[in-house]
Amino acid sequence: MIQMKIVYWLVLISTFLGIYYLGSKTDLKLWGRVIIALALGIIIGFIFGDLAETSKWIGDLFVRLIRMLVVPLIFTSLVSGVVAMGDPKKLGSIGIKSIGLYLITTLFAIIIGLILGTIFKPGNGIDLTGVDPFTSGVASMSVAERLFGIIPMNPFSSLANGEVLPIIFFSILLGIGIIMGGDKTKSLGNFFSAAAEAVLKIAHMVMQVAPYGVLSLVAWVSGTMGLAALQNLLVLTVILYMGCLFHMIFVYGGLIRIFAKLPLKNFFRGILDAQAVAYSTSSSSATLPVTLQCVQENLGVKKTVASSVLPLGATINMDGTALYLGIVALFAAQIFGIDLSFTDYLLIAMTATLTSIGTAGIPSASLFLLATVLSVIGVSDEQTALIVGFVLPFDRILDMARTAVNITGDATVSVLVAKSENEIDEDVFRENAVL
Ligand code: ASP
After folding, report:
1. Which of 80, 129, 226, 256 lies 20 to 30 Å from 74 when distance is taken between CA atoms?
2. pTM to 2 decimals?
3. In this predicted structure, what is the pLDDT of residue 137?
4. Quick check: CB of 366 below 6 Å from ligand 1?
5. CA-to-CA distance for 143 and 372, rounded, in angstroms?
6. 302-312 pLDDT, tens per residue?
7. Would you say 284 and 278 are in contact if contact means Cβ atoms under 8 Å apart?
8. Paired strand residues for 424
9. How far is the CA of 319 from the centre of ligand 1 (A)?
10. Which of 280, 282, 369, 392 to mutate for ligand 1's pocket (most ligand atoms within 8 Å of CB)?
11. Is the CB of residue 287 below 6 angstroms from any atom belonging to ligand 1?
């Protein structure tokens, strides 16, 4: 065992060195290195199995580094973004457009989930009687609670606790205050703009370690749950991945191509880093700094739009999650022999949309909100616990795909809104070779 561990670490370190070499001696861009790291991570995890657990800390370190930037980045870039806008009315139109688009894309996602779940029947042939009932310990907030909580009682405690929606609320007001102050507050506006610039520079530095973090996290997932998940949840996993790909290519791709009239290749290449980080960390909110960076620097979306649309999206827009909730609802209905009427489908779509809005952007958040969706089709708490217990050990693999979709949806909406508000530098989008 000890020898294997040494071999594992030797392989890992040489892979790291290889990736480092690629970065320093060739002109391979960061996104290229991240993709290579992702692929190698899957292979290394597959070969070394549980041993990959021993290097997970490298991934955790990377996640901590980007999480560190979430609050400073939202706060500084949103305040300076609002100030740069110059006109608070514009904010209203950006807000309405982004929320509208967020809802529409989520509805598409859930419809795709329901169609795939109906055609491919992931629940067929699965027997859940041997699974231990499992009750979740993760607390969740209702949509109503979230709405009320948007207004911070104390903005500083919201900043300290990383509560994204209250931070957004306060930052927008502060930005408007700075605009209204005219010359007197101009220097404060400049301060926030300089601070946002500095935090983005830190994000750049942190991203240099992305390939190593991504590799370690993916190796851990593929090493500790890869094969087992494939055997137990094969159909569910394949359907979810198919749905996610379909949604990304046709819904997001269609929107970017048809409505924004921009080249798809550049879009997907521009957000690859964010997708890889979302895929390996399973957390939209941890990925937010990277999404902000990719969307601004590679897709040319101006700070005014990116800094408001993306943090909002990372909090309320979860298309991959909605798609997943739809599929699992059908999975449950098939396992427990529940006949679904058209009204049931509508109910699932509605609750899945609302639940996805209320889902936190952290790993496996939606798994613990399954009960909300399942209860509308008459699945009991006991039965839900069975499903959660069954899916939980492998949820990471499902979570990775849905999180990548979640952040791709945020990026898509930011491009569409930026395009319609004339807040996009299309030359940057078309060129797209920054990182
Ligand atoms: N992990 C997902 C996210 O961060 C949420 C989920 O569990 O579906 O976007």
Report:
1. 256
2. 0.84
3. 41
4. yes
5. 12
6. 999 999 999 98
7. yes
8. 301
9. 10
10. 282
11. no
Rounded to whole angstroms, how far apart are CA atoms 328 and 334?
A: 10
Name residues whose C-beta falls within 8 Å of residue 378's C-beta, 6 or more positions apart in sequence: 338
User: At a CB cut-off of 8 Å and minimum separation 6, what does 133 contact?
Assistant: 382, 385, 386, 389
Cα–Cα distance, 377 to 109 (Å, whole number)? 19
What angle do helix axes 395-420 and 210-246 make, rounded to 10 degrees?
80
HSE at residue 366, side-chain half, CA atoms within 13 A, is 38
Query: What does the domain layout of the chain look like in residue ranges?
Result: 2-430
Question: Comparing C-alpha atoms, which of 68, 39, 342, 17 is closest to residue 202?
Answer: 68
Considering 118-132, 270-284, 367-381, 420-434, the range whose residues carry the highest mean pLDDT is 270-284
Instruction: Give the distance (Å) from ligand 1 centre to CA of residue 213.
Output: 19
Specify the amino acid at residue 74: I
pLDDT digits (tens, 9 = 90+) for 240-250: 999 999 999 99
Backbone angles phi, psi at 424, to 5 degrees: -130, 140
Q: How far apart are the first and last CA of the chain?
A: 40
